[in-house]
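Q: Please design a sequence for this.
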């Protein structure tokens, strides 16, 4: 491919009647979708990656980014990805579980103590397990998962200081059985709502709270519709970069390698960006009006255990998957 381009360029120079500067149409015009605004590090790093891919494939692979759910809410775009209407999509493994049930295992409540454990697990056996499940479902997945972060809890009515504050609490959760189960175990009233509708749901009072990492609270300007922010760290969440199998197979092997290398390198940079944001945003969010409080995770985890949450999910995921999770976090749940 690159050779052909070189020949075309040489010909253009040698034959001045061929107008220079005419863009050669890309052979592969693909789309990548996600739910985050352009200023989120996911899209900052993705823009660099698609520029490098275009360059390194000699203009052959042109991937356009559709941020902020421009192509639809997450659960709709997952359908488009499977049908081939969109070629690439970044999605939380926990939402992906609506198609690949065991993909959500990293989201088990209070499983991960810190980022070190997360990256060892997700770049190790637990990530490999999830990718295997995703591939079995007929999707392509890049090796490196991108960071969303440890999820924190916001509210318009009261700070969440312990599990009792969650009883009867009307909280938005992303669309996924694991999230619904988690808040049902707390005795809360969870409502499944795609991210695209979260701001409006909070603004109109359909729900009183939601949970997300700090970087998302910032780009979604959630202080405008929420007051309290409790550092519950109840779950780590990321984004798998998924691909449609036919669209992937259509790419020449050399281009596949370029795309995978660029996406995985971008994931590493995005992780560093998002970790820094999640660690450093408290001051900024406080100055926007959020009232922060820290919580002890222990009573929350105890409450989940009492409610049978861990037993239920061990049974749902199965012994093999559960053993991989427990090995990754170095303790039993
Ligand atoms: O929907 C959410 O809350 C978000 C942005 O965190 C996910 O993609 C799971």
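A: Design:
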């Amino acid at each position: 491919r690159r050779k052909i381009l070189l020949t075309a360029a040489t010909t253009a120079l040698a034959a001045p009647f061929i107008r220079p500067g005419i863009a050669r149409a890309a052979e592969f015009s693909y789309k990548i979708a996600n739910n985050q605004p352009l200023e989120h590090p996911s899209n900052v790093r993705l823009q660099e990656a698609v520029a490098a891919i275009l360059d390194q494939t000699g203009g052959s692979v042109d991937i356009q980014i559709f941020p902020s759910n421009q192509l639809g809410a997450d659960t709709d775009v997952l359908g488009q990805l499977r049908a081939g209407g969109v070629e690439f999509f970044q999605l939380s493994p926990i939402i992906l579980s609506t198609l690949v049930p065991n993909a959500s295992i990293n989201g088990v409540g209070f499983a991960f103590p810190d980022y070190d454990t997360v990256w060892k697990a997700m770049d190790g056996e637990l990530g490999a397990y999830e990718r295997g499940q995703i591939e079995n479902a007929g999707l392509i997945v890049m090796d490196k998962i991108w960071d969303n972060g440890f999820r924190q809890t916001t509210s318009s009515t009261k700070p969440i200081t312990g599990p009792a504050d969650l009883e009867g609490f009307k909280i938005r959760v992303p669309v996924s059985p694991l999230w619904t189960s988690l808040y049902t175990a707390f005795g809360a009233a969870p409502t499944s709502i795609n991210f695209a509708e979260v701001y409006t749901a909070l603004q109109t009072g359909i729900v009183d709270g939601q949970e997300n990492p700090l970087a998302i609270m910032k780009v979604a300007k959630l202080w405008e519709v929420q007051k309290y922010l409790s550092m519950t760290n109840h779950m780590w969440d990321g984004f798998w970069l998924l691909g449609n199998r036919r669209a992937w197979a259509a790419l020449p092997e050399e281009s596949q390698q370029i795309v995978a290398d660029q996406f995985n390198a971008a994931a590493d940079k995005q992780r560093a960006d998002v970790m820094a944001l999640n660690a450093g945003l408290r001051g900024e969010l406080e100055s926007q009006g959020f009232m922060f409080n820290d919580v002890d995770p222990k009573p929350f985890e105890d409450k989940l255990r009492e409610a049978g949450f861990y037993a239920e999910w061990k049974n749902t995921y199965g012994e093999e998957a559960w053993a991989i999770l427990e090995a990754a976090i170095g303790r039993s749940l």
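Q: Thanks. Anything notable?
A: The mean pLDDT is 94. DSSP finds 15 helices and twelve strands in the chain.
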